[in-house]
Backbone:
């Protein structure tokens, strides 16, 4: 099992591995049942891709990036979505958590937007899909 192996690499106990695997499974099930954001996972979108590898060369140094989800919607807008599984701390409001996540991953989303802008001239929207909250947090 992929996730068990990954969690063991962090030196977690078997109990912790089981807890983390259960959390991943719950988030996957919740996402699959989330009708509000089902359009994100619709593979009929133009240029629909998951785990899309992109290559950038800067100062003769190649760098590879992997975009979790991307597609072009019916209006011609490129969507660039990165999945995040984190949870707010116990004392943290959901709104504060979302703002913190957007700030934390701002440079990553901006980089993805730049990579697509170098390939195409269509408008782009970037977002984090917070799987633990079933929330789409827009970055603009």
Residues:
């Amino acid at each position: 099992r992929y996730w068990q192996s990954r969690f063991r690499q962090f030196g977690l106990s078997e109990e912790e591995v089981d807890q983390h695997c259960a959390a991943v499974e719950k988030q996957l099930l919740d996402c699959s049942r989330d009708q509000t954001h089902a359009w994100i996972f619709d593979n009929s979108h133009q240029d629909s891709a998951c785990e899309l590898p992109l290559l950038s060369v800067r100062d003769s140094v190649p760098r590879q990036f992997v975009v979790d989800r991307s597609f072009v919607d019916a209006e011609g807008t490129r969507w660039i979505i990165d999945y995040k599984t984190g949870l707010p701390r116990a004392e943290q409001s959901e709104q504060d958590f979302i703002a913190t996540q957007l700030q934390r991953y701002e440079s990553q989303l901006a980089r993805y937007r730049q990579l697509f802008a170098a390939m195409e001239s269509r408008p782009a929207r970037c977002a984090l899909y917070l799987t633990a909250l079933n929330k789409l947090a827009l970055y603009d």
